[in-house]
Batch of 2 targets.
Target 1
Amino acid sequence: MVRELTHFIGGKRTPGTSGLFADVYDPNTGTVQAQVPLAGRAETEAAIADAEEAQRGWADWNPQRRARVLLKFLQLVESERDSLARLLSAEHGKTVADAHGDLQRGLDVVEFAAGIPHLLKGEFTDSAGTGIDVHSLRAPLGVVAGITPFNFPAMIPLWKAAPAIACGNSFVLKPSERDPSVPLRLAELFVEAGLPPGVLNVVNGGKEAVDTLLDDPRVQALGFVGSTPIAAHVYATAAARGKRAQCFGGAKNHMIVMPDADLDQAVDALIGAGYGSAGERCMAISVAVPVGEETADALVARLKERIAELRIGRSDDPDADFGPLVSRDALDRVRRYVDIGVTEGAELVVDGRDFTLPGHEGGFFAGASLFDRVSPRMRIYREEIFGPVLCVVRAADYEEALRLPSEHPYGNGVALFTRDGDTARDFTRRVNTGMVGINVPIPVPVAYHTFGGWKRSGFGDLNQHGPDSVRFYTRTKTVTSRWPSGVKEGASFTIPTMG
Ligand code: NAD
């Protein structure tokens, strides 16, 4: 039976009224399991109006009282962690174990956000001039919005919404139309935890909903995560309309393997970070850069062996290493890129194009592919594939390996595998990329640090979660005050100075 999903506005599930719907698939079978409404302008504006009204009262709650809602939310999620992970896995196609990780990484940021009162304290200078004190405070922005991708349907909505509401804003979330059920349930749990209706609204939809959020003057700031062309468009449009924006885009994350690296560790890392979640992670490793021919030959031989042992299965199969891709389009795109790589002259060591899971011929499964001798001029190197395809680019020496991620248009994450501290230190200082891992393949920073890529992977000055999220979701007001008992100087016609 095909379920009909809703929006979540004013604290309750609200049916769509535009008459437009998108199909939500079961990626294991390729069949439609639900339909999600696509909000038009009127529905999106209704959600914004509701959020605007709720924000005034919410901002008057003291910060610790707001934080208590987040703590209660964490308790409520605990009691249905497994069903949330299963729901997420069933729409996205990642394994249930991986879906647990998606949820946990989001909850980490909710825990961080419950401590945000500490970061809202502002600054104070006693006696900045005679009888004059100065303080700055952090005020919420008002209504803010988040537009999120399909590949982390729990983590990224929580990364955006939790710090925003902890700072006293109301939030309109526009999640991916491909796996909207978990964001809807999370919003419901926030209200069950005591969040006043309207502080967190979920509007399902596509371009029209996003255009409305961009156009509406009541929306003060937008956080976007998704592909680079749309991230760049949202950033430019938001900026042109005077809105604050942070927009994160695609990636091509490299992993450099030095000759002195622990090869077992490097191979494990590449198999997990290259093929986990079928490569549908913005921090997936999609390029391996072995340094020297000997390292490269050994690495490619070991990868080939390990790929043969990979278990691809249904997303709810506990023995599967990874499941299907999210959609038919994603599967077609991955196969097309493997074709392109062959045409460009890269050496296809493992071909995953024809993989099918018996009994699931309609599912969106792609096998793992491995290319060797990829050159930086090739499209399979320059463009994001977002699937289980790993490219090996052989580098002659460390300097050439360092140049590759540094000169690549994307700059999300990068990893270096080595036993040498000097090389590691030099690399972390010189590489032109936002997040760096040393012997860590997916260097997603912990919740109290910040997450963000450079170059075509991130537009805007401030990163997600950590202290930057408080800076993004508040603005500073600075107050200079003098009381009547202060020195009376008479009228002054010059710019005030402090002494
Ligand atoms: P996407 O760009 O297709 O969609 C992202 C969001 O934008 C969705 O909510 C979608 O509905 C909306 N959207 C789609 N078309 C639009 C349009 N024309 N105008 C306005 N909004 C539109 O991305 P996706 O396929 O859902 O996610 C995968 C991409 O996200 C990959 O490129 C991946 O690297 C990237 N990603 C980046 C990060 C990061 O932190 N840098 C994290 C996760 C995913």
Target 2
Amino acid sequence: MKVSELFGKGRTVMSFEIFPPKKTGSIESVYSTIDELAELRPDYISVTYGAGGNVANTSTRDIAAHIKNECGIEAMAHITCVNNSRDEVLTVMDGFKDAGIENILALRGDKSPDRPPKTDFKYASELITFIRQHEKYNNIGISGACYPEGHTEAEDLAEDILNLRKKVDAGAEELITQLFFDNRFFYDLREKAKIAGINVPISAGIMPVTSKSQIERMVTMCGASLPQKFVRMVTKYENKPEALIDGGIAYAADQITDLLANGVEGIHIYTMNNPYVAKKLVSIIEKLL
Ligand code: FAD
């Protein structure tokens, strides 16, 4: 089932995001994490794609196939194009299709200074156009990424939204946001997207933060701003790891409660492969969805 068909049914769609194990980790360790997350019955679980975009790296496919075929939960496999040629994209897509995966998150991927990008695709919208040119993928749902504070390479949010419209016009049927800690950025994006004629559901990406180093990493990677309320919470509990986890969950629950009250269509939880945190968060929000 295409993920876009989950929307518009009178309740908010709840999804999780997980990542494959690092090169040294075992895939089995992720399967036990997924089995615990599956007990929470999210509407779908998405699986990230290694930044290197190596075709030989099949763990995204195998994990998404486990979610779909063993757990009976809709799966979404991420795919990036910055380091893939057209032929390599087709190889990855055929692998997804053969494994029964019906949804992808089509991304450009981050450019790495250590690895010059391949030249077949410049933007995610080109990847989506290319996939949509192939009839054999007609049954595969395509989602795209969006950025409440604007993508770091865009001049401003207005320019980024014009580019986002190209992604939707190319065939993205749902959008998932980068994480954010101040809901005002999400409402701003949603309003401006509507004005730009973007009419697909936008799921809000929420990350319950659990450690100070995680916050620092995230801010460096995606440039999310940290509101005073959040900074005060982190500063108060930064030397009490267990309290910081509870604070992070409470902050995320508060953000989600406000989003739900304001009619958000989807909540996408960046689980960081931590079922304990996901379970605690879901226990607070599940009746509100
Ligand atoms: P694009 O949509 O191509 O946008 C990139 C930049 O180009 C933006 O500044 C945009 O404004 C601009 N642009 C777009 N189209 C045009 C155009 N036609 N003309 C001019 N400018 C244009 N990365 C991974 O490596 N693996 C993952 O699994 C992964 N999962 C993610 C999941 C989510 C929900 C999100 C939000 C991000 C994820 N990322 C992942 C990170 C993502 O790859 C980076 O943010 C990347 O820098 C941009 O990807 P994109 O698909 O949004 O790119």
